[in-house]
Design brief:
- The protein has 248 residues and is an alpha/beta fold.
- It has a domain of 172 residues: 3-Layer(aba) Sandwich (Rossmann fold).
- The protein has a six-stranded mixed sheet, with helices on both faces.
- A hairpin with a 3-residue loop joins β4 and β5.
- α3 crosses α4, α3 packs parallel to α5 and α5 runs parallel beside α6.
- The relative contact order is 0.17.
- The structure holds adenosine-5'-diphosphate.
- The site of adenosine-5'-diphosphate has 11 residues, from β2 and α1.
- It comes from Clostridium gasigenes.
- It holds the Pfam family ABC_tran.
- Keywords: ATP-binding, Nucleotide-binding, Transport.
Length: 248
């Protein structure tokens, strides 16, 4: 982990009408760091990631992106969104496009990059995940695990500085979970800055530099994984871990 701060979140708040989804979130994410966000359903994990990707309008608080400054003030969302990659539970691949066209779309349209150059990068990444022979397949011809790995490659082809993962294995059959977790582990080993929301506790312990535990729209504690799983500071985290004790 390097010391450079890639993302800095200050006093972030988010409401949906009269529901407070996030309340005063403060967090620094360092370059090369892997943060895993844990917490009970409805505590605001997904909303937080969506705010970091500009999918939610932010009324209060700021997100500072590296040395570019505050997003929405010093730098426009359009200029940084490509550098903040996100992968969703539901893949979000375009069903009428084959794998390589799904991968090419963002870099060519949003980043105006050369087709050959992106195709080469896409092919190399597909090879790394063992799916180079599925370049011409359509999403419906792929398993859930394969679709999710393609969705990761698609996000990586935008050359992001940080990757956000929102419960990306939650909809997969158990035998496909591992292949997707392994791709994230490899990315972490290669130094990608990542923020991961997951319910896979063993994986969280394995991959995280720090665990961020949330409850009711707030960060309750930030700990290193060993500390968090063996000796959580907050009562709420203890209760939460009890639910998962059979899985850890
Ligand atoms: P988590 O990802 O931890 O399960 P979410 O971020 O999805 O939590 O939700 C946080 C809170 O915000 C919940 O109370 C949820 O019901 C509410 N919420 C999330 N999205 C919306 C939305 N689009 N409209 C209204 N309320 C929402």
């Amino acid at each position: 982990m390097e010391n450079e701060i890639l993302l800095k979140i200050d006093n972030l708040k988010k409401n949906y009408d009269n529901i407070t989804a996030l309340e005063d979130i403060n967090l620094e994410v360092h370059k090369g760091e892997v943060l895993v966000i844990l917490g009970p359903s409805g505590c605001g994990k997904s909303t937080f990631l969506r705010c970091l990707n500009g999918l939610e309008e932010i009324k209060e608080g700021t997100i500072t992106f590296g040395n570019k400054g505050i997003i929405g003030k010093d730098v426009k969302w359009e200029e940084v969104r490509g550098e903040i990659g996100m992968v969703f539970q539901s893949y979000e691949l375009f069903p009428h496009m084959n794998v390589i066209d799904n991968i090419l779309l963002g870099p060519m349209k949003a980043q105006k990059r050369d087709k050959k150059e992106v195709e080469k990068q896409g092919e190399e990444l597909l090879k790394r995940i063992g799916l180079e022979d599925r370049k011409k397949s359509f999403p419906r011809q792929l398993s859930g695990g394969q679709k999710q790995r393609i969705a990761i490659v698609r996000a990586l082809c935008m050359n992001p500085k940080v990757m956000l993962f929102d419960e990306i294995t939650a909809a997969l059959d158990p035998e496909m979970v591992r292949e997707v977790l392994d791709v994230m582990l490899e990315l972490a080993k290669n130094g990608m800055t990542m923020i991961i929301v997951t319910h896979e506790m063993q994986f969280a312990k394995e991959v995280a530099d720090r665990i961020v535990f949330m409850d009711k729209g707030k960060i309750c504690e930030i700990s290193n994984p060993n500390e968090f799983f063996e000796n959580p500071k907050s009562e709420r985290a203890k209760q939460f871990l009890n639910i998962f004790k059979y899985k850890v």
